[in-house]
Amino acid sequence: MLVKRRATYAGGCRSAGRLQCTSRVLSSFIFRHLSYKDAALRIGYFVFLLGVLVITLALYSALQNGEDGEVFPSVVIFAAPRPFSFRGGRPDLLGAREMLAVRSWLALGPEVTVVLFGQDSSILYLASNLGSRVTVASNIDFSFLGTPFFHCMVARSQNSSSAISVIIDPETILLPNFLIALRCAYKLDRDWFLISRTPSISNFPFLMHNTGKHWLKEDGSRVRIEKLQEHVKQELRWSNCSEKLLIAWNAGEVPLHAGILPPFLYGRGFHNSWLLHEVVLSDFRLVIDASYIASTIYPENLTYYDFWGNFSIDNGHVRWEEGVNQRLAALYGSHFLEGYDKLRKHLYFIKCSGRYAFVNAAKKVVFSTEGCNEQSFVLKLLRDQQYEMLFFLKRLLHWWIQKKWIHCILDLGNLCSPKQAFKENKQLALLDTAFTLESLLKISADNDKTVVLAVAGHNYRDMLMSWVCRLRHLHVSNFIICALDAEIYQFALLMGLPVFRDQLAPSNISFNQCHFGSECFRKVTKVKSRIVTQILKLGYNVLLSDVDVYWFNNPLPLLQSFGPSVLVVQSDEYNETGPINLPRRSNSGFYFSRSDPPTISAMEKVVKHASTSSLSEQPSFYDVMCGEGGSTRVDDNHCLEPDTNLTIHFLDRNLFPNGAYKGLWEEEDVRSACKKQGCLILHNNWINGRERKLERQVLSGLWEYDPAMRMCLQSWHQPNLTSHSF
């Protein structure tokens, strides 16, 4: 018998591999050298070695191949942390919560990376302290108050190469069972959209170990994840259903929803419920609600953290931004309409009797997966592969387990439901008195009390946005906008721009017939000098720039170098030689003025002169500054206003070219030609008609805005510029 057994081992060595063969030789050696008296010990050794062999082979096979040979795909978690402060080198409570949250995300597994949207230095600090799997992205749009735009966050997330994208509140902690939900959803054969509402917990007495691999109690002792989850389930509270909604989706073949996502301001309400509503009604993707496994929590207090900090949130600004989101939710989509019936199709992801499953509560059906638990993350769907055809609860479970599952299903209505998430306040907010000129100056002006002013009507809406986007790319944030009509005012408010309304502006501004020389043009230009003078009197320097001026670089450092009692203005002279300050060659669409007595007095004279003239502002501007016929010209590029002793400097056209200088707009590559010349700006003037002006700028490539998506063009962005009607 022993001989036969040894022969079997020897034969097995030829097919079992080196590891198994070595173990068998060792076993044979022990059998030959132990005496008959040690038979019991011999058997014990054999059983022990056999057990070690089985475990070793199982681990080896799992490590080499993995079940089904599959590797879980990459997950990118996107978040927009709020800037936080420091005291004594430590982040405040907000910073501590955000850091703990991000560390909990990273602890889910090596396949998880994190992208933080932000511009503040505290966000860079956060990322630098959390390793290479955390990066900061500032290349999305932010409002003038620094709030990121939700539609840009979603677009940037969809542009990611990861298999699964997640957008989460920056203070929300993720527990390991969240990754189980993603793994289960990933195995489905449909494109999906997963949500998880986040309950709050008043006391969270746990912290993450420095290695980021396990959780600790306040005394530093390790806590099992099961104990932590048990504490969470006992302490959690459900309040606002959609305030801290987590959303996730797979990189499938269909969009999240039909239509365009409006420019919601992130964290200011409505955007989560609006998106969920549109995803459900579009019915492109399977909607999964993973709230019931309590994998996301918001800690109100960190008991081990004794520094609270001082949060500087302007409630007035927050209320205004909430009003913007409320208006957007009403104007776009069907969020304010009833449409809950289609929600009956969505699935819950729950854990009941130790097992995870998808549940359609309306149909009382459970869709099960194999191996969906903490120990085995590789899932096998039933061979049918159709989630609606998976077998019914009664065929899976014994009668006593059936009762437990039925109880779990009945409990699904006790928490926040997607239907409740739609029941936000639907009374439209009024946005007519958002910001005054004075309040915007305090917010937007730079340290030198300088602002960039644009004056625009609804007819130049897209060009205004391209101008704004260009300034954002150049990190110029000290701009404000004067709205000439109600339409552009409402549009600018909804786009998060620093806009104020000029109540004295002309009311009959034509959409397409407000070009140079028109009656509309003459009325609009007179607004500019009046608003500039008003700002100068408030103590702020002003760079007035028409929105058809393309900025290659920030010209402010050069313009500010001219000092006091000097007004610098662009020349409209097209001849390449000769004086550039001849009569009517000052361009009042681009000039820099300081808040000093000579400049203010001269600008008051311009306003008075223009008010009695039947011409546009530009002749009045020149006649006051350089005298009628250029009588106060000093040389070829300077004038002197005699009453105020203000010097008027005409800017170098190689740096500040107008639309007719050197034929730059006719160049095949306008950008390269201007770069070679050293242009700081290029004015898109000397062309008649709004349509022709817009067409020339878009086709030249000097365009920074996607009107279809309502966002600035970015390096990751695929623009759609076909929506322009030239």
Automatic annotation (TrEMBL):
GO terms for molecular function: glycosyltransferase activity. Pfam families: Nucleotid_trans. It comes from the Eukaryota. Residues 475-696 form the Nucleotide-diphospho-sugar transferase domain. The chain crosses the membrane at residues 43-63. The keyword Membrane applies. Keywords: Membrane, Transmembrane, Transmembrane helix. PANTHER family: BETA-ARABINOFURANOSYLTRANSFERASE RAY1. This is Nucleotide-diphospho-sugar transferase domain-containing protein. The lineage of its organism: Eukaryota, Viridiplantae, Streptophyta, Embryophyta, Tracheophyta.
